[in-house]
Specification:
alpha/beta, 11-stranded mixed β-sheet, 13 helices, Rossmann fold, binds L-homoserine, Alpha-Beta Plaits
């Protein structure tokens, strides 16, 4: 792009980068490759002046231009030749201390650190506001999908009632392969590890922790409340069986690991992550492989969906770069973005949340058993939407598959306790929530 002769010469903004792994390296290359275009468009010329790394002598594939490499990250945040700090090292410490120091010295910060923001976001946003600088974090949730800025800016006046996300690519890949290729959980996990999606210890992804941290951040910005990852109920995908997936498909559902953040009419909120049966016709059912998507429901705007890559060097660096440009333009203009005031969250207890359920129950195949089992649902206030029995003639047992209408989780738990106590019930093999209306 040619520069506009009427525009003043671009003002240089110097970036101090904390971390030069996959995302930091991709960001450095993007800044080098795109800085002329960015300068022509925005009037701000970006340059990476300092980079903190763990081992400064390690050979690197990315061109670091004239940046100074150091093993002392604290020196980057306090350096006179750093105007904007980018934190891509992850984890709570030293990231929290480094970001605090940068904000206190009036430097805008761009962070991709979901763990830090999920635990200490409210405190850091307040600090940024108090010092009149930006703390931007588009890449911390759903990687390359521009979703945080639309939520905090375009939808600032919207009464958002529910946000539903597929925000962990690893688990979405595993569930997709189990669904489409008929792989077992173990086979799909091994392939996810071979592709570099899942870590050697996959607990953060398959246990729902990663999605839980992201869900806490989403709920904070969607509802303007202060909550942390500890407030998120999370269940992972390790109990989802090939049988569940086959039954779900037959009944017209896909099983997805969903993060659901809801605000109720009394302003209480709930944030949960769990495997969910998603109706085939819902837009989230078509989100396959390692892709992410965030589905927003608002009273005026209706339904919106944001879709793309939730991880990876290029997509994440693209989101970081957008924030760096925003923070740099704001810095030059002497302004900053604000998330506004976060009020303490009033959390609705899990037991009070409404949800429809899919239940698979092994029972004795005898006269009167169905009536007995169905009666337990009724006496606990759980209404059955559909039921099917699977079991060959002559088998001593049958499998009953129920889908309920929305019920209080406490009532479903009471139903399960009573069912387990019955002699005619052998086992309850699956309990999976079903996505329905808010
Ligand atoms: N491990 C995450 C995922 C990416 O699979 O989506 C980083 O949050």
């Amino acid at each position: 792009m040619t520069e506009n002769p009427d525009r003043p010469a671009p003002r240089t903004v110097r970036v101090g980068l904390l971390g030069c792994g996959t995302v930091g390296g991709a960001l450095t290359e993007l800044v080098t490759g795109r800085c002329d275009d960015i300068a022509a468009r925005t009037g701000v010329r970006l340059t990476v002046s300092r980079i903190a790394v763990r081992d400064a002598r390690r050979p690197r594939q990315v061109q670091l231009a004239d940046a100074v490499l150091t093993e002392d990250p604290a020196s980057v945040v306090t350096a006179d030749d750093v105007d904007v700090v980018v934190e891509v090292i992850g984890g709570i410490e030293p990231a929290r201390t480094l970001i605090t120091t940068a904000l206190r010295s009036g430097k805008p910060v761009v962070s991709a650190n979901k763990e830090l923001l999920a635990h200490h976001g409210a405190e850091l946003f307040e600090l940024a506001d108090a010092h009149g600088v930006d703390l931007l974090f588009e890449a911390a949730v759903a990687g390359g999908i521009p979703f945080v800025r639309p939520l905090r800016e375009s939808l600032a006046g919207e009464d958002v009632t529910r946000v539903i996300g597929i925000i962990n690519g690893t688990t979405n890949y595993i569930l997709t392969k189990m669904t489409e290729e008929g792989w077992s959980y173990t086979e799909a996990l091994a392939e996810a590890q071979a592709l570099g999606y899942a870590e050697a210890d996959p607990t953060a992804d398959v246990g729902g922790f990663d999605a839980g941290a992201k869900a806490a951040i989403i709920a904070g910005i969607a509802f303007g409340v202060a909550l942390s990852a500890e407030d998120v109920h999370h269940e992972g995908i390790t109990e989802v069986s090939a049988d569940d997936i086959a039954t779900a498909r037959r009944l017209g559902f896909q099983i997805k690991l969903l993060a659901v953040a809801e605000r109720f009419d009394d302003n209480s909120v709930a944030v949960r992550v769990h495997p969910t049966m998603v109706p085939e016709e819902h837009p989230l059912a078509s989100v396959r492989d390692s892709f992410n998507a965030v589905f927003v429901e608002g009273r005026a705007v209706g339904e919106l969906m944001f879709y793309g890559r939730g991880a990876g060097g290029g997509p994440t660096a693209s989101a970081v770069l957008g924030d760096v440009i925003d923070a740099s333009v704001n810095l030059v203009q002497g302004s900053h973005a604000s998330l506004g005031v976060f009020t303490p969250a009033s959390l609705r207890p899990q037991s009070e949340l409404p949800s429809a359920f899919y239940l698979a129950v092994e029972v004795a195949d005898q006269p009167g058993v169905l009536a007995t089992v169905a009666g337990v649902f009724g006496t606990n206030g759980v209404s059955i939407r559909s039921m099917e029995q699977v079991g060959a003639d002559g088998d001593a047992t049958a499998r009953l598959v129920f889908i309920t209408h929305a019920a209080r989780e406490a009532d479903v738990s009471a139903t399960l306790i009573k069912l387990r106590s019955l002699d005619v019930v052998g086992s309850i093999d699956s309990v999976i929530r079903v996505l329905g209306d808010a």
